[in-house]
Design goal:
This protein is mostly helical. It has five helices and two strands; from the N terminus they run H-H-E-E-H-H-H. A two-stranded antiparallel ribbon has the order 1-2.
Length: 104
Amino acid sequence: MKMMDELKEYLRIDGDDENQTLSLFLQAAENSISIAGVPVPSDPFLKVGEKDIYASYRLAVLMLATHYYEQRTVITPSIIRGESVPLPYGLQTIILQLKHGVRL
């Protein structure tokens, strides 16, 4: 499975109409998480035995890409005043754990 397939399943999207936009959101999410100090795995689907080693990394990418997908809005006065939608609950915790090498 590829990250694009996993994101489409996570968002419950069928078809390929939005692949270009979803690819942009995936890349932006991966870049943001990398800039936050999280090492990017060479194989985010690596398993050791039955343990999915990078499940938390993929979940963080999916959560952030989904946030980008769902919050496509034009700039309005409320957004300028700072009433934008916050990042998903738990995303910061996952990023901090990944950044500091905590494995769950």
